[in-house]
Design goal:
Helix 4 packs parallel to helix 5, helix 11 packs parallel to helix 13 and helix 14 packs parallel to helix 16. A four-stranded mixed β-sheet has the order 8-7-9-10, with helices on one face. It has a three-stranded parallel β-sheet with strand order 1-2-3, with helices on both faces. Helix 2 links the parallel strand 1 and strand 2. By secondary structure, the protein is of the alpha/beta class.
């Protein structure tokens, strides 16, 4: 799901490398019909979904002679994950849009390879509860959460004392709050280590991405707020660490490449050989670590606050952030305004402590409305 995005295209490269192992059943895209058509012609899935219904006819006509079923719209995303021949659903949609299809896949008993952190940020309690009830595994695809998962293999019965999620610090590491005021869209979209889509790249620049990962980690690994720490590691070689109750620490390391965590999620518990570039210690004679500046990168602190508030707080924060990032990408607000909008929405949206799915949906709607009322530059 989300085959035309950064994660989706890399996942298809992984699948292509092991044709005898993987059988691609369905691919979906929101609006990139041209690339979806190219992927369908190459990989010959049984079905495709284009989220943008206005592009349905274009996709259908292009694939008419291929015998590939073509569907459109948000409801179709929830229906195709239920196909009998599907075993694993890779959720690589952007943002809140990933929640309902992921829940539908869980209800259908499909294992989830999760690259859509917002699913757990928005409704972590609901998602994990339903996954447990259905006996569904959720395999993390985010590099940091995959690192934690890899460190825990063989340690599942040993209690975690603490985890450290590493952050590159983004393009503005070391900036002051004043310097952030003048940041441009082009600067914010230039990440030093990772090649990602626009939304996650901006989130990395504001450190909201790390905040969302903190909340995701809570639900994935059943942790308390005080067990999750963030450390800035500019080289992005140590992808995250686990500290156990005896004081021992495990880290997962490697060159920045999303194909590795994608492949591990799809092939666990096996490690298959790859031709990915190998890390060389001599190329990195120094690995450095530093504390994130929460006074400058307020979004990270807001994520901890939302996690502490519980209930629908993180859902509201995520909704505000999605609106604010889009406003920035549309050049309607300044970079520093993103955190201000997020803070305003978090402070002024009612928190429902025992939410239903409808409560999450309503909170998302209200928070987006409040965020969009921010005065533009």
């Amino acid at each position: 799901m989300g085959s035309t995005g950064s994660i989706g295209t890399q996942a298809l490269e992984v699948i292509e490398s092991y044709p005898d192992l993987f059988d691609l059943q369905v691919i979906t895209a929101q609006s990139n019909a041209d690339l979806l058509i190219q992927q369908a012609l190459k990989f010959q899935p049984n079905a495709v979904v284009i989220g943008d219904e206005s592009k349905y006819q274009l996709v259908k006509e292009a694939l008419f002679d291929e015998g590939i079923q073509v569907y459109a719209g948000a409801d179709s995303l929830c229906q195709v994950v239920e196909f009998n021949q599907v075993n694993v659903v890779l959720t690589a949609l952007v943002g809140y849009a990933g929640l309902k299809p992921t829940l539908a896949a869980i209800e259908a008993g499909k294992d989830i390879a999760l690259a859509n952190k917002e699913t757990l940020v928005v409704a972590g309690a609901l998602v994990t509860e339903r996954a447990k009830a259905k006996g569904v595994n959720i395999y993390p695809v985010d590099s940091e959460h995959s690192a934690i998962f890899q460190c825990l293999v063989g340690e599942f019965h040993n209690p975690i004392e603490k985890i450290y999620l590493t952050a590159s610090g983004g393009p503005f590491r070391g900036f002051t709050a004043e310097q952030l005021q003048d940041v441009t869209k082009a600067q914010a979209l230039k990440h030093p280590n990772w090649s990602m889509g626009a939304k996650i790249t901006i989130d990395s620049a504001t450190m909201m991405n790390k905040g969302l990962e903190v909340i995701e980690a809570k639900w994935l690994f059943n942790l308390k707020e005080e067990q999750i720490d963030v450390i800035v590691h500019p080289q992005s070689i140590v992808h995250s660490l686990v500290q156990f109750t005896d004081g021992s620490m495990k880290a997962q390391m490697g060159l920045p490449d999303m194909k590795l965590p994608i492949q591990f999620a799809l092939t666990y518990p096996h490690r298959l050989p790859t031709d990915f570039p190998r890390f060389n210690f001599m190329d990195y004679p120094q690995l450095t670590f530093e504390k994130p500046d929460l006074n400058v990168f307020k979004n990270l602190g807001l994520a901890y606050e939302a996690m502490k508030l519980g209930g629908t707080a993180a859902c509201a924060l995520n909704a505000a952030n999605e609106v604010a990032v889009q406003l920035f990408l549309d050049e309607k607000i300044r970079f520093a305004d993103i955190a201000d909008i997020n803070e305003n929405v978090l402070r002024n949206t009612e928190v429902i402590l025992q939410p239903t799915l409808e409560d999450y949906i309503q909170t998302d709607t209200l928070a987006r409305k409040l965020a969009s009322q921010h005065s533009i530059i």
